[in-house]
Write a structure and sequence with these properties.
alpha+beta, N-terminal domain of MutM-like DNA repair proteins, Helicase, Ruva Protein, domain 3, 2 domains, 6 helices
């Protein structure tokens, strides 16, 4: 699944190509995504100008003067910038065609993504209104994690992956941040001290910022805005390295399942 850095990379990549551009046509080849694509989306968006491209959690927001396109990449979705006339492939479900000949093409083999439309403030939308803070903003810190974790018996990895606590910390980066902070992923969230949460919050910010600078660690299905893979697997410290030597102590990394998600850690370095 594309995680926050992949979505941020996508937002930054497509913004220069679509901001200020007027939509000429929307071609919907497959309306059955995670939720049905709104009927008559082409009529709704025709002649509207994209004012901004932003991100909230893992949602891309394409704002116009009268409403906002809410786009989610799901498990395998990607966006590409193309020129008009480029033939569509099997899983190219939606094209946003602009007056200057640019196409923003949405591809999603597994169809778990979404393309929605709202005329209300996005912060009030049912998919966005209950989300936690953005991890790269100042409102997210160790005190926030400590306060919400009291009396919680759930594993700390599950806790920081809960979008009501903080958005955008998916499986890859939860593994990485917990390793950097030296915290065992299965430790109960309510038993972690404030100082350790302060360190963990700093590590979450660092690992996400590093990944954004690299263009996103990506999964094999992620393609960045230029159409190039952005997979920087060699940069990862623990994720995908079960059984290999820890990069700090050289002991073999262990793998367990937490809420059915692969969890890799070092039993020597993480307590």
């Amino acid at each position: 699944m594309p995680e926050l850095p992949e979505v941020e990379t996508t937002a930054r990549g497509i913004a220069p190509h679509v901001e200020g551009q007027v939509i000429k046509q929307v071609v919907v080849r497959q309306p059955q995504l995670r939720w049905p694509v709104p009927e008559k989306l082409d009529e709704t968006l025709a002649h509207l100008e994209i004012r901004s491209v932003t991100r909230r959690a893992k949602y891309l927001l394409l704002a116009t003067d009268v409403g906002t396109v809410i786009l989610h990449l799901g498990m395998s979705g990607s966006l590409r910038i193309l020129l008009e006339g480029k033939m569509a492939d099997k899983h190219d479900h939606i094209d946003f065609v602009f007056n200057n000949g640019t196409i923003l093409r949405y591809n999603d083999p597994r169809r778990f993504g979404a393309v929605l439309w709202t005329t209300f403030p996005t912060a009030e939308h049912s998919l966005l209104r209950d989300l936690g803070p953005e991890p790269l903003l100042s409102e997210f810190d160790g005190s926030h994690l400590y306060r919400l974790s009291r009396n919680r018996k759930m594993p700390v990895k599950s806790f920081i992956m809960d979008s009501h606590i903080v958005v955008g910390v998916g499986n890859i980066y939860a593994n990485e941040a917990l390793f950097m902070a030296g915290i065992q992923p299965s430790r109960h969230a309510g038993k972690i001290a404030l100082a350790r949460y302060q360190q963990l919050a700093d590590c979450v910010k660092q690992v996400l910022q590093d990944a954004i600078q690299q263009g996103g660690t990506t999964l094999r299905n992620f393609v960045n805005e230029a159409g190039n893979p952005g997979y920087f697997k060699q940069q990862l410290r623990v994720y995908g390295r079960a059984g290999l030597p820890c990069k700090q102590c050289l002991q073999p990394l262990k793998e367990i399942r937490i809420t059915n998600r692969s969890t890799v850690f070092c039993s020597h370095c993480q307590k």
